[in-house]
Specification:
alpha/beta; six-stranded parallel β-sheet; 6 strands; binds adenosine-5'-triphosphate; binds magnesium ion; CblAdoTrfase_CobA; corrinoid adenosyltransferase activity; ATP binding
């Protein structure tokens, strides 16, 4: 080994030791154990797929999960096909299509209300460890659900229960209540280049 590569390796080792000390200290300081609210918002692709990634992790750990999807897409999504009959997952899907397809505000409000009742049951159930409320934010931005009722229900859920919420334009109040918020940025999307939706990647 040349002298300069020896010096470089030694510098690297010192830098890694400092980094490890810093990371170890931060891990030692994180002592609180609690149920989290995770909000995934923004215009980029990756919100629901990240949420279902956490659901897969949770199921892997044997946790009991509930899913409520507030917008039913045109295609049967892979996450539903995978999880709907899973013994650890209770899966509910709103029984109408996209709002620009139904074009009926009264029917949308009724569907939002009955779908929210499924969510409420999960958010009151001590035995449910993880609740995923996919595309919930649209019900709030369209005013289909009362925001304060939703926030109260989230606040009063069983201690230790995790909630994952997805959808664009999450409200300030929801983001303040959350413990973790990620905004996915839209840098580029294949659909805008005329590419068809792809099973596995898009649904
Ligand atoms: P995904 O389910 O892929 O994680 P998402 O939950 O972040 O996406 P949604 O707004 O729920 O995004 O849209 C779901 C569908 O729309 C997916 O098929 C996704 O690929 C597509 N999509 C998401 N973001 C964009 C975008 N910025 N431009 C075009 N299509 C998008
Ligand atoms: Mg989504």
């Amino acid at each position: 080994m040349t002298q300069s590569s020896e010096a470089r390796n030694a510098r690297h080792k010192r830098a890694m030791q400092r980094k490890k000390a810093h990371v170890d200290e931060r891990i030692a300081n994180a002592t609180i154990d609690k149920g989290l609210i995770v909000v995934l918002t923004g215009n980029g692709k990756g919100k629901s797929s990240s949420a279902f990634g956490m659901l897969a992790r949770s199921v892997g750990h044997g946790l009991r999960c509930g899913v409520v999807q507030f917008i039913k897409g045109q295609w049967e999504c892979g996450e539903q096909l995978l999880f709907q009959d899973h013994p650890l997952v209770s899966f509910h899907v709103m029984n109408t299509g996209f709002t620009w397809e139904t074009q009926d505000r009264e029917a949308d409000i009724a569907a939002a209300e009955s779908t929210w009742q499924q969510a409420e049951k999960l958010l009151q159930d001590n035995a449910v460890n993880v609740v995923l409320l996919d595309e919930l934010t649209y019900m709030l931005t369209y005013g289909y659900l009362d925001a304060s009722r939703v926030l109260d229900c989230l606040r009063n859920r069983p201690e230790g229960q995790h909630v994952i919420i997805t959808g664009r334009n999450a409200s300030q109040a929801l983001m303040e209540l959350a413990d973790t918020v990620s905004e996915v940025q839209d840098t580029k999307h294949a659909f805008n280049a005329g590419i068809k939706v792809q099973p596995g990647i898009d649904y």
